Every structure is written in structure tokens, then in C-alpha cells.
């Protein structure tokens, strides 16, 4: 089905269809559709909301995050069809049944997390499954490598590159602000990424932002590290581990 886009300034990972159009392609609220941009060839999977009055038939409302992902302008024509059920749901159920996931299954799950294919409830099911049926060492490796593979990667020409991580908020003294300069002064390169506050008043990135900007791209992080030996930046701006930001 070809529909004309209408931008909707709502932070939601989905699209809005007229109830008549939804019936025509056999989808209901909460189902998935594939939306294809004819100009770029880009297509995304999006969750469906329906309405009988907010938009007319022949028009598809594109929520802001979906519009960014598909890179489409208002008034453009897109192709919309019912999307297949993600195969990763079977992998999640497999883990719920206390079966081991292999490398390819884990990578498929993480790719769907990054691409916003999974709903919050489906992602919750995966997290709960890994809690009730803990990952073995091979599965931990698969998960770690999948998170690296689905993000931007930094490749430094010099060696070694070191890192420091600890459990945040215990007791919340932000020791990274002390450790990172010490390590850099010793001649080691340390591109330190940190989080913003999760449970406390300020995370390491928030505290560092009082002194200097912390939002940089992965390329900028690499360039600054090569130049001065160390950075303390907000990991959420780098796209190094987008699965972690979900």
C-alpha cells in the first residue's frame, strides 16, 4: 500500500494509520509494519497505532523517531506493508525455556534491539529470561561481541589502549575524574566513556560536564585521545554501544 506521510511531533517508535488502511493490510494496534522510503530505498519496521479521525485514509502519520530513522520528508510517498514476526522472538523464548543461545542468535537479538524492532515488553522478556536463566561464559562473550559489532568501533594506531570501569554509585565519589588523568600522565591512552545519572543526582558524565563538554562523536573521541592521551565523555553520544543505550 502506498501512503502519503504526515509528520507527527511525538516521541514514539511507530506510525499512525487510519483504521480503514490498517484493515486493508490486515494489521491492528500493536502490530508491526514495514515502511519503505522509495527515494532512498531505506525501510524500517514500526509499531502501529490506529485512528478513525486524526488522519484521513491514504495518509500515514510518522512519529518523530521513525521519521529520523527512515529519513523521509512530510508529503512523501512511502510503501507500507504488514511486517513479518521477528525470528528473534523464538530465540527469546528459547532462553526463557533455559536453553543456550549461540553466537548468531545473540547477535540477531542485539541487532533487533538496536534497530528498535523489539517492543519494550519483548525486550523485557529477554532481560528477565537472562536473569532467571543466567548466561554461561560463552553466552556472555557472544553478548559482549554483539554489542561491540552493532556499534561504532574505534581503532587506534598506537598500543596499548586502557580503560577503567567500576560499579556506579558505590559510594558515588566519581573516582574516574581522579584516575583518568593519573593514567594519562603515566603515558597510557585512556578513552573513558561514562554514563549520566541513573539513580543519583549526578553521574560521572554530569559531573565532568560542569568542567567541560562531554557529548562527542566516536571519531572525535578517538582524535582527542590521540592528541592529549585521555578523555572523559558521555558514552550515550558516541554510538559505540547503542544496545546499551536502549
UniProtKB/TrEMBL annotation:
The keyword Glycosyltransferase applies. It holds the Pfam family Glycos_trans_3N. One of its GO terms (biological process) is AMP catabolic process. Residues 90-151 form the Glycosyl transferase family 3 N-terminal domain. SUPFAM superfamilies: ADC-like, Nucleoside phosphorylase/phosphoribosyltransferase catalytic domain, Nucleoside phosphorylase/phosphoribosyltransferase N-terminal domain. GO terms for molecular function: 1,4-alpha-oligoglucan phosphorylase activity; pentosyltransferase activity. Gene3D superfamilies: 2.40.40.20, Nucleoside phosphorylase/phosphoribosyltransferase catalytic domain, Transferase, Pyrimidine Nucleoside Phosphorylase, Chain C. Keywords: Glycosyltransferase, Transferase. Residues 159-233 form the Glycosyl transferase family domain. This is Thymidine phosphorylase. The keyword Protein transport does not apply. GO terms for cellular component: cytosol.
Amino acid at each position: 500500500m502506498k501512503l502519503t506521510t504526515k509528520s507527527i511531533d511525538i516521541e514514539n517508535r511507530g506510525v499512525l494509520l487510519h483504521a480503514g488502511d490498517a484493515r486493508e493490510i490486515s494489521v491492528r494496534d500493536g502490530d508491526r509494519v514495514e515502511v519503505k522510503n522509495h527515494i532512498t530505498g531505506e525501510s524500517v519496521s514500526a509499531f502501529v497505532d490506529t485512528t478513525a479521525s486524526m488522519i484521513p485514509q491514504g495518509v500515514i502519520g510518522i512519529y518523530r523517531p521513525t521519521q529520523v530513522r527512515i529519513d523521509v520528508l512530510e508529503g512523501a510517498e512511502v510503501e507500507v506493508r504488514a511486517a513479518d514476526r521477528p525470528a528473534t522472538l523464538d530465540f527469546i523464548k528459547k532462553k526463557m525455556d533455559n536453553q543456550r543461545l549461540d553466537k548468531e542468535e545473540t547477535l540477531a537479538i542485539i541487532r533487533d534491539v538496536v534497530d528498535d524492532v523489539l517492543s519494550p515488553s519483548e525486550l523485557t522478556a529477554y532481560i528477565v529470561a537472562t536473569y532467571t536463566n543466567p548466561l554461561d561464559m560463552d553466552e556472555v562473550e557472544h553478548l559482549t561481541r554483539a554489542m561491540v559489532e552493532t556499534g561504532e568501533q574505534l581503532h587506534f594506531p598506537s598500543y596499548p589502549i586502557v580503560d577503567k570501569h567500576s560499579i556506579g554509585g558505590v559510594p558515588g565519589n566519581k573516582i574516574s575524574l581522579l584516575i583518568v588523568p593519573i593514567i594519562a600522565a603515566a603515558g597510557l591512552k585512556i578513552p573513558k566513556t561514562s554514563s549520566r545519572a541513573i539513580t543519583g543526582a549526578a553521574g560521572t558524565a554530569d559531573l565532568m560536564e560542569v568542567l567541560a563538554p562531554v557529548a562527542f562523536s566516536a571519531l572525535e573521541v578517538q582524535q582527542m585521545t590521540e592528541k592529549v592521551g585521555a578523555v572523559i565523555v558521555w558514552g550515550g553520544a558516541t554510538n559505540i554501544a547503542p544496545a546499551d543505550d536502549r
